[in-house]
Design brief:
With about 350 residues, this protein is of the alpha/beta class. The chain is about 25% helix and about 25% strand. The structure holds zinc ion (2 copies).
Length: about 350
């Protein structure tokens, strides 16, 4: 019965093998449980994780694989326990995970992503029912209400998509390490999907923001479009040395390797370098940390409570990611362009108007 086409009423785009090439794929989702929300997906952002997983670069991918974990949509059905929080027609978001135990210390403290039993990723994860999770490059999704977020009134839905992964990924370490102190200085290393949001958040929090980039071509936009106070070409040793001990915080959003010793030398006493990108290795001499009591801290996405707070922060400060909206039929090209860093600054797939089951 499971193979009956009538039950396969969700249409997605899936990769079938490590070539990572995506094509249409019909499948079924679970029926809406008492704590579930079902949403018609309107938009889904494209995260670098989508490249990594569709191409099995982490070695764990299970095919067919439907990626996408920056999901925004409209509630179409809710379970009996959900009535208080969400109703049909509400705009909602779903991020990088869709389940956790909801019982452990971390879950109780709204650090669900650090759940002791493991949070369930939005795609390529095994959910409580034993079924492989499938992401937001699809017409609809069914999610436990705990992992659904209210999109603030009047916030544009397409712009909300990148906040669900890129946004919370930079917002979490910024809050954890108290980067919400106006007047302090923040250096943002790398200016892609994550970095451009770190700049916008930093400015909204009253920080003095410097962008470090390898590419002079980003200078104009960093200063004039994103509002950074300063722009530094990271290969310019002289400029770098002149900034010695001048930063309270650094956020490394770059995925390429960076000279950690040099960057650590830019931190003031007790400064913090938050690592949200994935360089191949983190290499530095211990003295770069010890002298000056500096810290390097890791972080990945964020908890449900903080995600909701971040969405409201963006709405109240009128922070909107810079996006390029594309139809699902363009997705393979978009992933290629993402690999080639040919995007300012986030692709968002218009699922609602380009992916239809009746087409
Ligand atoms: Zn992501
Ligand atoms: Zn837990």
């Amino acid at each position: 019965m499971a193979s009956s086409p009538s039950t396969h009423n969700c249409l997605g785009w899936a990769a079938r093998d490590p070539s990572g090439v995506l094509s249409p794929y019909n499948f079924s989702r679970r029926v809406v449980g008492s704590d579930d929300v079902s949403l018609d997906i309107a938009y889904c952002g494209i995260c670098y994780a989508d490249v990594i997983w569709t191409r099995n670069e982490g070695g764990t991918s299970k095919y067919p694989l439907v990626p996408g974990h920056e999901i925004v949509g409209i509630v179409k059905e809710v379970g009996s326990n959900v009535i208080q929080r969400f109703k049909v027609g509400d705009p909602v978001g779903v991020g990088a995970y869709v389940n956790s135990c909801r019982e452990c210390k971390n879950c109780n403290e709204y650090l669900e992503i650090e759940c002791s039993k493991g949070a369930v990723p939005t795609f390529d994860g095994i959910d409580a029912d034993g079924i492989l999770t499938k992401g937001g490059y699809s017409t609809y999704i069914v999610v436990h209400q705990r992992y659904c977020y209210k999109i603030p009134e009047n916030y544009p839905l397409a712009s909300a998509a990148p906040l669900l992964c890129a946004g919370i990924t930079v917002y979490t370490p910024m809050m954890r390490h108290n980067m919400n102190q106006p007047g302090k200085s923040l250096g943002v290393i790398g200016l892609g999907g994550l970095g451009h949001l770190a700049v916008k958040f930093g400015k909204a929090l009253g920080l003095k923001v410097t962008v470090f980039s390898t590419s002079i071509s980003k200078k104009e936009e960093a200063l004039n479009l994103l509002g950074a106070d300063n722009f530094v070409i990271s290969s310019d040793q002289q400029q770098m040395m002149a900034l010695s001990k001048s930063f309270d915080f650094l956020i490394n959003t770059a995925s390429g390797d960076i000279p950690f010793d040099l960057y650590l030398s830019l931190l003031k006493t007790a400064g913090v370098l938050a690592l949200v990108g994935f360089p191949k290795q983190v290499k530095f001499s211990p003295g770069s940390l010890s002298f000056g009591m500096k810290s390097i801290a890791g972080s990945i996405t964020g908890g449900t409570q903080l995600t909701q707070e971040m969405l409201e922060f963006c709405a109240s400060h009128k922070i909107y990611p810079e996006i390029e909206i594309v139809p699902i039929q363009y997705v393979n090209e978009a992933l290629e362009r993402l690999i080639n860093k040919d995007i300012k600054y986030r692709f968002v797939i218009d699922i609602g108007s380009s992916l239809k089951t009746d087409g």
